[in-house]
UniProtKB/TrEMBL annotation:
It comes from the Bacteria. Keywords: Plasmid, Transferase. It comes from Paenisporosarcina antarctica. Gene3D superfamilies: 3.40.630.30. Residues 1-133 form the N-acetyltransferase domain. This is N-acetyltransferase. GO terms for molecular function: acyltransferase activity, transferring groups other than amino-acyl groups.
Length: 140
C-alpha cells in the first residue's frame, strides 16, 4: 500500500506535492534531485539539499514499490554520500512506523536525533543524523 494511503499524511507526504512544488525542488539552488536507475529503468528519485557547505539533508527518496527490497536504496545512499566527500554530516527524516526504513538508515550509520514530529494519529516523523569520519592522510 502506498505510504500516502497508509498514513493519510496529506499535508506532508511528497507524493501529494503539486507539480509546481516538484519543479521548485528540482530547480532549488541549494540542492539537487537525482534519478535512481536500476538496469535501464528509472525506479525512483532522491533529493539532496545543502544545509551548509558540509551539512547535507536527504529528502525525499522514493523508489517504485516493485523495486523495493532489492538493495537499491542502500546503494543509492552510499553513492550519494560518495558524491559529496566534503560532507561532515547527513540528515534525514522518515516515518517511525516504517520499520524497514528505520532499519535501513540505522544499518547505514544514521542515528536517531531524539527529535520527532507527530504528523497525525497514524504517523510520526523521526529524524536521523550521520556524522562522517574525516579521512586523513597520515604517514607514520
Amino acid at each position: 500500500m502506498p505510504l500516502l494511503e497508509k498514513y493519510k499524511d496529506y499535508d506532508t507526504n511528497p507524493a501529494n506535492e503539486t507539480i509546481e512544488d516538484v519543479i521548485k525542488r528540482i530547480n532549488k539552488f541549494s540542492g539537487g534531485l537525482y534519478k535512481i536507475v536500476y538496469g535501464n529503468s528509472l525506479v525512483g528519485t532522491i533529493c539532496v539539499v545543502w544545509k551548509e557547505d558540509v551539512q547535507f539533508w536527504i529528502s525525499p527518496m522514493s523508489i517504485i514499490p516493485a523495486y523495493q527490497g532489492k538493495g537499491i536504496a542502500q546503494k543509492t545512499i552510499n553513492l550519494i554520500e560518495d558524491m559529496f566527500p566534503q560532507a561532515i554530516s547527513w540528515e534525514l527524516a522518515t516515518i517511525l512506523e516504517e520499520e524497514r526504513n528505520c532499519y535501513l538508515y540505522e544499518k547505514l550509520g544514521y542515528i536517531k536525533t531524539g527529535v520527532s514530529k507527530k504528523l497525525n494519529a497514524n504517523a510520526t516523523l523521526i529524524f536521523y543524523k550521520k556524522f562522517i569520519k574525516i579521512k586523513t592522510n597520515s604517514t607514520n
